[in-house]
Amino acid sequence: MLTGLNHLTLAVRDLNRSLRFYRDVLQLRVEATWDSGAYLSLPGLWLCLSLDPLRKTEPCADYTHYAFSVSAADFPVFVQHLRMVDVEAWRDNRSEGASFYFLDPDGHKLEVHVGDLASRLAACRQKPYAGMRFHDEP
């Protein structure tokens, strides 16, 4: 049986550029590097960067993305930091909780978000999405 998310692997075009972004801009801890990859971490997250010449240069048009948690107190400072290093935003926030949506150097869609599943569900109970059902109710 599954016990949680194990790790994320992101295909990258330029390993050194991506390593600098995740280490210096997003401040993940570098755990190991090798010729074609790197392991980085945050508490509860294992991220692998994998050099892949097949990585497309354009971000996909769908909504698939990876969200990182940030505290409400740190959110404005962190977003200002991202804007100062000229990350590209890809979407405006349309949901509960403060969010900033941005691209990494390879076009992976990322988000920094204030809140968690409990706060999202509480907001949805107040204003549900079309057709939304909550499965903890009888």
TrEMBL record:
Database matches in CDD domains: FosA
Enzyme class: transferase
Molecular functions (GO terms): glutathione transferase activity
VOC domain segment(s): 4-115
Keyword Manganese in annotation: no
EC number: 2.5.1.18
This protein's UniProt keywords: Transferase
Any matching Pfam family: Glyoxalase
NCBIfam families membership: Fos_GSH
Name of this protein: Fosfomycin resistance glutathione transferase
Source organism: Pseudomonas hamedanensis
Gene: fos
